[in-house]
């Protein structure tokens, strides 16, 4: 590989790594044409994992890290003194194909600092996608991080080659956006999301494909004063009003060449983890934001226990649940029983009476479930009412530090 | 005790034949010993004293799937366990698989998951290396799967790398794609693949750069990517160093004081950037011309024609065959009809603005002819943003919608022309007038009907001139 390109790759991959989303899943099944390469499946593939435990699925780079914007939390803000580089369209295309052919990646995740104008930048992103699709016969994954300020017709163009689109909202509240990203405007970003949603719905009606994998966004946690409850409300709003497929949470991470405007320390990674768990409860377990918030302290999720356990401890009167007769909706709320375990329980109990050993085979964390469920040979008795129940269920005090 | 000898690896066929024979003869699971040391000759899958051919068993679909997924597992007990469950299902426990908590069902489920995971990891962790100097280019990979999954995992690579020549070598067999056929061959060794690849250094660079030291969590990484895979993944060589240096990198970052920006804030550039909407018809048209058609095929975009400030703007459907080639609106047969009708109504073509709702020709190729095909509602709304900017810049007093597509573009609704013909209110409060599309007149078969429809059209144009045209005539 050419050393000049290798240098750009280092700079521009480094600059892109703070974007948490890297999903290659959700696209419809598609395979390579006779003279082409590339396929997509419903479930994405992680081709590697970095020592932060994160999946490497897409070649995640910026087209350039030169930027006119000055967002305080961003390493690429115009006033930062980092190394700058810029790929040509051809370099990105060649690199994507070379990596793809060696089975290093599922596809390309392309984003960019804003140079010259939002429209110009967006055009360059679209050009990369077009070249890959039309000139190289490439049918793998392409994810474009759209520039919210770009003109509507460009955003429309971007979604037409079945690319996945996203817009980063970055900060959950409008105040946060105002003070840390002075040039970014929440209404602009929301408008871009609204437009994409409209296009996706329209394309579905006409059986055309427009961003078939849906859209996603990322919220940065811990850079401003937004509480977990604020963040979750924003997410719930995004899921319902814009039909978002995923919201990613990214614990604000200290960056090289920081400014005095943001905290120098990062929030505990556990906070991000708890937000993902709560998000999961919203989407797959039938929880409402209010229910999750009711088990929080001042709008912040309990860092020591997961939000489902926190809710169960606040609502002990609704437990224990009998796994052999209890309603599915209530089984889903038993700490330690996941959605898949519940499906299996509901299916198995039609043919047999479930005992504790049975549940142990179906759930990996049956210890947490014990005080909250009844099986053919187990009844928690009064242990559900013990005042020290929380303390007994908190995992041993292992400080989850940055290097945990 | 009966002995069943299957081929080494995943012998699904042999297992099926043996199960049929055993079930037909009513042999209970505890009377069968399963081994897989047979050679490649078939026939000994079925014990010698049983008939070689037996009728197929009817099993629940889910069980059939479990069998196919568990057979590639490397556990020598797999065949016996499977036959045990088949026996239970055919002897009164039809729903045995539904009881996921049953110890054997649970164990089979674990095996099934292990096989799936192995297949998934093979799809993820195979690393192709380019064969130096080979022409056409060829790629070879070495991979060590845990179970006998080569045949089930291979179609994925065919689907993905169809235009590429590749071979995957493993200790349990190899598979090659020659551009049109996939073929399975004997096992090989690591030395069958090239020792290096020119892109591995770049890939490792990428891997290192995308790692965020502030989030180091090697335990989590090992959960996802077990160490046993590392020695065949070029990027894994960097892991120990990345983990070791992570904490010092973060500390160095935190110790550094907030930096003072050394660049001036480009306020001027920013302001210019935020104000990027096209300011003139010329700028807008340049954007339209540079954007590709929504439906591929058109030669070029056909933009509107006429003076800015024209009193009347006519909006048609989309350019036709001749318009597409010449790049001008209303120059084909329908355009010539419009020219004539405008003249009879006392309107000068050069005083009005003519454009289309959709800016690209969409057609079906039939032999040598390109047959016009109607734009969909989605396409119309895609182009609406441009049409609205265009009308904002021309500022006509009256906008004439010619035909159904123009009505849809200008009102957002599809309304039958016969009912809406005449003055109308359009989107954004524009004053409008609805009439037929000239090509409708050309399509009428009967000469008499054509004549009277043409006169009605000219009549409409006269009203159009009166409603919005005074300015146009004076101009």
**How many distinct beta strands of chain B?**
14
**Which regions of chain B are unreliable across 5 or more consecutive residues at pLDDT < 50?**
470-475
Structural class of chain A: alpha/beta
Shape of chain B: elongated
CATH superfamily of the largest domain in chain B: Uracil-DNA glycosylase-like domain
Report the helical percentage of chain B. Answer: 40-55%
Question: What oligomeric state is this?
Answer: heterodimer
Number of domains of chain A: 2
Entry keywords:
heterodimer, A: alpha/beta, TIM Barrel, 2 domains, 6-stranded parallel sheet, two-stranded antiparallel ribbon, 15 helices, 10 strands, 10% strand, disordered C terminus, B: 475 residues, alpha/beta, 4 domains, 18 helices
Describe the structure.
The complex is a heterodimer of chains A (404) and B (475). Chain A has 404 residues and is an alpha/beta fold. Chain A folds into 2 domains: 212 residues, Aldolase class I (TIM Barrel, Alpha-Beta Barrel); 87 residues, no CATH class. Helices cover 39% and strands 10% of the residues of chain A. Chain A is built from 15 helices and 10 strands. In chain A, strand 5, helix 4 and strand 6 form a beta-alpha-beta unit. Chain B is an alpha/beta fold. Chain B folds into 4 domains: 119 residues, no CATH class; 67 residues, no CATH class; 44 residues, no CATH class; 194 residues, Uracil-DNA Glycosylase, subunit E, CATH 3.40.470.10. Chain B contains 18 helices and 14 strands. In chain B, the strands form 4 sheets. A 5-stranded mixed sheet of chain B has the order 3-4-5-6-7, covered by helices on one side. In chain B, strand 10 and strand 11 form a beta hairpin. In chain B, helix 13 crosses helix 14. Classes of the chains: A alpha/beta (404), B alpha/beta (475). At the A-B interface, helix 1, strand 1, strand 2, helix 2 and helix 3 of A face helix 4, strand 3, helix 5, helix 6 and helix 7 of B.
């Amino acid at each position: 590989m050419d050393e000049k390109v290798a240098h750009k790759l280092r700079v521009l991959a480094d600059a892109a790594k703070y974007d948490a989303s890297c999903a290659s899943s959700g696209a419809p099944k598609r395979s390579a044409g006779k003279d082409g390469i590339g396929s997509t499946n419903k479930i994405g593939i992680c081709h590697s994992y970095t020592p932060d435990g994160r999946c490497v699925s897409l070649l995640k780079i910026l087209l350039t890290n030169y930027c006119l914007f000055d967002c305080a939390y961003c390493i690429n803000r115009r006033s930062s003194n980092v190394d700058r580089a810029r790929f040509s369209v051809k370099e990105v295309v060649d690199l994507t194909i070379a990596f793809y052919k060696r089975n290093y990646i599922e596809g390309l995740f392309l984003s960019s600092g804003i140079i010259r104008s939002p429209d110009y930048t967006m055009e360059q992103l679209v050009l990369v996608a077009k070249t890959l699709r039309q000139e190289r016969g490439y049918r793998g994954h392409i994810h474009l991080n759209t520039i919210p300020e770009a003109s509507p017709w460009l955003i429309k163009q971007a979604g037409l080659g079945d690319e996945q689109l996203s817009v980063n909202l970055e900060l959950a509240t409008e105040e946060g956006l105002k003070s840390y990203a002075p040039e970014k405007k929440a209404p602009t970003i929301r408008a871009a999301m609204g437009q994409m949603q409209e296009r996706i719905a329209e394309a579905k009606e006409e059986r055309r494909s427009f961003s078939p994998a849906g859209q996603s966004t990322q919220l940065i946690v811990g850079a401003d004063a937004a509480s977990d409850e604020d963040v979750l409300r924003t997410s719930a709003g995004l899921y319902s009003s814009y039909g978002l497929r995923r919201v990613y949470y990214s614990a604000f991470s200290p960056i090289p060449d920081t400014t005095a405007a943001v905290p120098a320390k990062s929030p505990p990674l556990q906070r991000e983890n708890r937000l993902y768990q709560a998000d999961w409860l919203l989407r797959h377990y039938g929880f409402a934001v209010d229910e999750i918030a009711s088990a929080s302290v001042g709008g912040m999720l309990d860092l020591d226990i997961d939000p489902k356990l926190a809710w169960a401890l606040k609502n002990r009167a609704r437990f224990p649940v009998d796994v052999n007769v209890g309603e599915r909706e209530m089984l889903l709320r038993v700490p330690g029983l996941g959605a898949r375990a519940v499906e299996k329980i509901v299916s198995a109990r039609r043919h047999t009476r479930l005992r504790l050993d049975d549940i142990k085979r179906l759930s990996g964390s049956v210890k947490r479930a014990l005080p909250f469920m009844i099986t053919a040979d187990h009844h928690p008795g009064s242990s559900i009412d013990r005042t020290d129940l929380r303390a007994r269920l908190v995992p041993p005090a292992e400080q989850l530090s940055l290097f945990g | 005790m009966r002995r069943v000898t299957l081929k080494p690896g995943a012998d699904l066929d042999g297992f099926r034949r043996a199960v049929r024979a055993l079930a037909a003869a009513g042999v209970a699971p505890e009377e069968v010993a399963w081994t897989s040391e047979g050679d490649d000759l078939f026939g000994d899958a079925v014990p010698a004293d049983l008939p070689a051919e037996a009728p197929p068993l009817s099993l629940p679909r889910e069980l059939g799937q479990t069998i196919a997924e568990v057979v590639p597992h490397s556990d020598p007990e797999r065949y016996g366990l499977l036959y045990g469950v088949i026996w239970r299902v055919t002897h009164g426990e039809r729903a045995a698989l539904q009881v996921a908590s049953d110890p054997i069902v649970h164990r089979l489920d674990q095996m099934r998951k292990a096989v799936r995971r192995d297949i998934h990891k093979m799809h993820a962790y195979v690393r192709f290396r380019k064969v130096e100097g080979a022409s056409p280019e060829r790629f070879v990979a070495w991979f060590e799967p845990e179970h006998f999954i080569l045949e089930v995992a291979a179609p994925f690579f065919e689907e993905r790398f169809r235009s590429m020549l590749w071979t995957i070598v493993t200790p349990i067999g190899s598979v090659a794609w020659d551009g049109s056929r996939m073929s399975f061959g004997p096992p090989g060794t690591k030395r069958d693949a090239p020792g290096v690849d020119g892109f591995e250094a770049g890939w490792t660079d990428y891997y290192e750069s995308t790692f965020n030291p502030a989030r180091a969590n090697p335990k989590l990484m090992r959960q996802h990517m077990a160490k046993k895979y590392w020695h065949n993944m070029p990027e894994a060589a960097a892991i120990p160093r990345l983990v070791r240096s992570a904490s010092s990198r973060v500390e160095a970052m935190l110790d550094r004081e907030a930096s003072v920006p050394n660049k001036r804030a480009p306020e001027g550039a920013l302001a210019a950037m935020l104000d990027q909407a096209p300011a003139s018809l010329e700028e807008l048209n340049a954007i339209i011309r540079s954007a590709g058609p929504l439906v591929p095929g058109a030669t070029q975009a056909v933009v509107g024609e006429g003076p800015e400030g024209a009193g009347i703007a006519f909006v048609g459907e989309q350019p036709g065959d001749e318009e597409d080639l010449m790049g001008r609106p209303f120059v084909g047969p329908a355009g010539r009809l419009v020219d004539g009708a405008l003249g009879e109504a006392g309107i000068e073509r050069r005083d009005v603005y003519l454009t289309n709702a959709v800016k690209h020709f969409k057609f079906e190729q039939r032999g040598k002819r390109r047959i016009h095909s109607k734009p969909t509602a989605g396409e119309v709304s895609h182009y609406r943003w441009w049409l609205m900017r265009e009308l904002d810049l021309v500022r006509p007093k009256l906008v004439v919608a010619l035909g159904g597509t123009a009505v849809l573009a200008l009102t957002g609704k599809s309304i039958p022309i016969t009912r809406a013909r005449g003055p109308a209110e359009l989107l954004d409060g524009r004053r409008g007038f609805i009439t037929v599309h000239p090509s409708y007149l050309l399509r009428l078969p009967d000469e008499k009907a054509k004549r009277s429809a043409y006169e009605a059209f000219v009549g409409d144009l006269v009203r159009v001139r009166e409603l919005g045209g005074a300015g146009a005539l004076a101009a």
